Amino acid sequence: xxxxxxxxxxxxxxxxxxxxxxxxxxxxxxxxxxxxxxxxxxxxxxxxxxxxxxxxxxxxxxxxxxxxxxxxxxxxxxxxxxxxxxxxxxxxxxxxxxxxxxxxxxxxxxxxxxxxxxxxxxxxxxxxxxxxxxxxxxxxxxxxxxxxxxxxxxxxxxxxxxxxxxxxxxxxxxxxxxxxxxxxxxxxxxxxxxxxxxxxxxxxxxxxxxxxxxxxxxxxxxxxxxxxxxxxxxxxxxxxxxxxxxxxxxxxxxxxxxxxxxxxxxxxxxxxxxxx
Length: 276
What we know:
By secondary structure, this protein is of the alpha/beta class.
């Protein structure tokens, strides 16, 4: 599978790097690696459309200067690349996220082994951090859990480690599907991993739904999530900015959900909602 590598330079870096990443995440870009000047990101050659990038409103904003270079990415040993760019992560002194090549730690309650390759979900990005942080406060014991847009599978794996009875993970990206399968085996947890989107849900109901995606998908699929959420169930969403809060809450309350909690990190937020 051939990829094009884009190297974006962003001035000023904050908060514009995260805003640009949010825009690009709604296009078929599959990975983001931060650099000192901006970030690297990758897209399948057959899905590349440079005009869509130029049409993003941020590209013409007078408040930020954005430039980029691109090149065809050779076949890469992704494990080797992530070994260079993926330090371990500690979430709230509770969760240790690490890869095979990182040292083992036994001083924290939870340890999750993740080899991310091209998939999203290492805990470095604020959205994954916020989701895991919020999950620490939730009761998963004996629950049926859905992880939508599962990426590396880290949220599904953590739900299972917290005692969930059944965990289903769904992602539309083939690379993420394969990566989640690998990571579930590394962590010795049983997760039902599927390739697709919300159309796969059918009539299956869940006690907790996790959705770390983006604003547009969350708004589009909110009613489907609620339909598959059991009474008094919880929906935890992320992949959104502070300025998206009102739109998400309006859609959630319109579908019978009640706001419970918001966590924020560097302008990215997660929102916990309860089905009334």
